Amino acid sequence: MTMPRTTPTDWLIDLGNTRLKWARADRLAHEGVQAFAHEQRLGADALAAVFAPMFASLVAGDRVWIASVAGSAATASVEAALSRIGAKVERVATRAELAGVRIAYADPAHLGVDRFLALLGAYARARQAWLIVGVGTALTIDLLAADGSHLGGLIAPSPTLMRQALAQRAPHLPREGGRVLDFAADTDDALASGAILSARALIERSIRAARRTLGAAPTLLVAGGGADPLLEGWRVRAQRAPDLVLEGAAAYAAQAGGTPHAR
What we know:
alpha/beta, Nucleotidyltransferase, domain 5, 9 helices
């Protein structure tokens, strides 16, 4: 029989524009994460159902760390749901330096917390040079040197957002589907190929630029919900990191636990 837990622990939440992901920090590597496609629908009943396993396992002194790039209303809904059951909520914020990583931005508030945590997560994996690609609503690319220096990055529309934007202007165009080909012979394949190959071209250019900057090629690390379509059939050496933001949140909680930023 499993004994109830009495030692406080940390919980991690990654609240994006379309998905909410959460995990217990000490079980992230072994049990993975829970995910919920919220599409900004974060009512009390929905959140109670999503967080039911967490609520049942919380003990006094547990902390819940929230990294959010969603709107303020969505973030407030999640924080309120956690506060109602007595969780100690901590808001994750980008810092100029933490856990060996030093960001390139002069104003930390201008670097999205998801990109910051991806840097922390990569560096926690190995203290080496990384080219970190996030494929979500946006396509983000960040270069991290082996000494922990963030050398800057790029932001572009993700393949999914490219197709959504086209469909908004031309509603007859499909938002999904199609194969990635060098030269497509129908519209579905042409759209899929244009979006995916555009993203790949930007990443390939960034790999070449990183090699010039560092004198050696960094390891390509790809995270985000759109990573699989981007990598499928692409002959590139890359590591997949589906939960990289939460890995970074675990590193953040371990380092920042003594200086809470509760809301």
